[in-house]
Known about the structure:
There is one protein chain. By secondary structure, this protein is α+β, with helices and mostly antiparallel strands. It has helices at 19-42, 53-60, 137-148, 173-176, 190-196, and strands at 67-72, 77-82, 85-91, 117-123, 127-132, 163-165, 186-187. Helix content is 27%, strand content 18%. The strands form 2 sheets. The chain has a 4-stranded mixed β-sheet with strand order 4-5-6-7, with helices on one face. A 3-stranded antiparallel β-sheet has the order 1-2-3, with helices on one face. The radius of gyration is 21 Å and the shape is globular. The two termini are 23 Å apart. Mean pLDDT is 83; it is low at 1-23 and 32-49.
Amino acid sequence: MRCRETIFGLITRENHTSYPVACNIYRTILRLLSICAVLMFSGRSPGQIDDALSVILQNKQIDASTLSIFIDKTEYTLRIMCGDQLIKSYAVVFGGNPLDDKLRQGDQCTPEGEFKIRGFYPHKSWSKFIWIDYPNESSWQKHRKAKEQGKIPSTAQIGGEIGIHGVPDGYDYAIAHKRNWTLGCISMTNTDVNEIYPFIFIGMK
């Protein structure tokens, strides 16, 4: 996990006529701190917080078919990438067990590895559903190995229907407070899932 530390220097003067200047500096620092807090809390990068993904792609003249998705379970972020270039970052939450890799149905873990988008559609409960191809061959290998090692019951099922989706109406605070409420899916605010949805395509990584 990358940590950033900002050190502010305090400048004082004995001349009381500089008090208004000091107040202005103080207010500026407070505004900067507020902006930094929002950026850190949302998982978004400076300069992107107010820009819709469509606007960023248009301004940078990026072909949407070159986009990919990178999800970081440690930092609770979903990143839209173009090669190695970060385009935009969104806050997300995960299954009830956000730390471990998914090995079976019902473990409430979010799967780790490389997946592709296999489908996407509107959803009545959480706005949109972006379906990933779990379980893929790598998932099956982990599942079988876990059975061999006795980590999961021999009768355990691998599960499925994992994807990226929004939240029930009025539940955005779950994302803001990092409440891992799903059974293993990746959840983001409805505003955010609606923003990325037009740029999702079958086979997207």
